[in-house]
TrEMBL record:
First-level EC class: transferase
An example Gene Ontology molecular-function term: 2-C-methyl-D-erythritol 4-phosphate cytidylyltransferase activity
Species this protein is from: Thiobacillus denitrificans
This enzyme's EC code(s): 2.7.7.60
Iron recorded as keyword: no
Family: Belongs to the IspD/TarI cytidylyltransferase family. IspD subfamily.
Pathway(s) this gene product operates in, as recorded in its UniProt entry: Isoprenoid biosynthesis; isopentenyl diphosphate biosynthesis via DXP pathway; isopentenyl diphosphate from 1-deoxy-D-xylulose 5-phosphate: step 2/6
Record site feature (Transition state stabilizer), residues: 15, 22
Reported function: Catalyzes the formation of 4-diphosphocytidyl-2-C-methyl-D-erythritol from CTP and 2-C-methyl-D-erythritol 4-phosphate (MEP).
Sites marked Positions MEP for the nucleophilic attack: 160, 213
Biological classification of the source: Bacteria, Pseudomonadati, Pseudomonadota, Betaproteobacteria, Nitrosomonadales
Protein name as it appears in the record: 2-C-methyl-D-erythritol 4-phosphate cytidylyltransferase
Encoding gene (name): ispD
PROSITE patterns referenced in this protein's UniProt entry, alphabetically: ISPD
Gene3D superfamilies reported in the protein's UniProt record: Spore Coat Polysaccharide Biosynthesis Protein SpsA, Chain A
Residues of the signal peptide: none
Length: 232
């Protein structure tokens, strides 16, 4: 049984609003994607990293990846949605990855993955019958909005007991995840929801808010500050 990482990196970063796809935006002097790759590559239990790019990606080649040859393989099969990218990547990995091998799917847009959180996920899920994901119990009070002409207004408060915010990596066996994503369709926003649709219950492994997803411009500033102190 082996562990592989699949990094979906074929998005356009529309919510970031930049000219450059956010996974290539500079973050503490290197492209954002490199931070996640470095943490994943440093985990000795992970045999290989597969980065899934858009077939039209023209930026990857602008960077120096010498020395990564043994640890990383680029797959140019990204799709129109994140779920499609992941499924296309799984299919391309099938020549090397057995059905019971573990695949850790990690967003290129999460550059601040703490090494200890990655290690904890592997420790706690490697013998799990289903798989699991990093997540954080919801700490804020949650409001359900009602759209009005004057903008969003709080219609109700959603009880936060038992609610967690999903992060990545999300770790499932190659065969199960491929089956789940094929059955669930292209609009799944994470791997765990496809697994849940099979009637399975992924394990929630507690992470923390440092492992944020860089979505909006202000997240880039936060990520830079976190990275300055991460894994010190
Ligand atoms: N068709 C897609 C869409 C997203 N992703 C990847 O999935 C991760 C999380 O997605 P998100 O934060 O939504 O990135 P984008 O889709 O690029 O952002 P946006 O939704 O703002 O366009 C990112 O690493 C992104 O590159 C992908 O591989 N293929
Ligand atoms: C997978 C994920 O990061 C878990 O929170 C999230 O669902 C990705 O959503 P996005 O809209 O594709 O960024």
């Amino acid at each position: 049984m082996s562990f592989y990482a699949l990094i979906p990196a074929a998005g356009s970063g529309s919510r970031m609003g930049g000219k450059v796809a956010k996974q290539y935006m500079p973050l503490n002097s290197i492209p954002m994607i490199a931070h996640a790759l470095i943490v994943l590559a440093r985990e000795p239990r992970i045999s290989k990293l597969f980065v899934v790019l858009s077939p039209t990606d023209k930026r990857w080649g602008n960077y120096e990846w010498a020395g990564w040859e043994d640890r990383l393989q680029v797959l140019r099969c990204g799709g129109a949605t994140r779920a499609e990218t992941v499924l296309n990547g799984l299919q391309a990995m099938a020549t090397e990855c057995a059905a019971d091998d573990w695949v850790l799917v990690h967003d290129a847009a999460r550059p601040c993955l703490p090494a200890e959180s990655l290690s904890r996920l592997l420790d706690e899920v490697a013998d799990d019958p289903v798989g699991g994901l990093l997540a954080v119990p919801v700490a804020d009070t949650l409001k359900r909005a009602a759209g009005t002409e004057s903008g969003a207004r709080a219609e109700a408060t959603v009880p936060r007991a038992g609610l967690w915010q999903a992060q990545t990596p999300q770790m499932f066996r190659h065969g199960t995840l491929s089956e789940a994503l094929r059955a669930a369709g292209a609009d799944m926003t994470d791997e765990a929801s496809a697994i849940e649709q099979l009637g399975l219950q992924p394990k929630l492994v507690e992470s923390d808010s440092r492992n944020l997803k860089v979505t909006y411009p202000q997240d880039l500033v936060l990520a830079g500050l976190i990275l300055e102190h991460l894994n010190e």
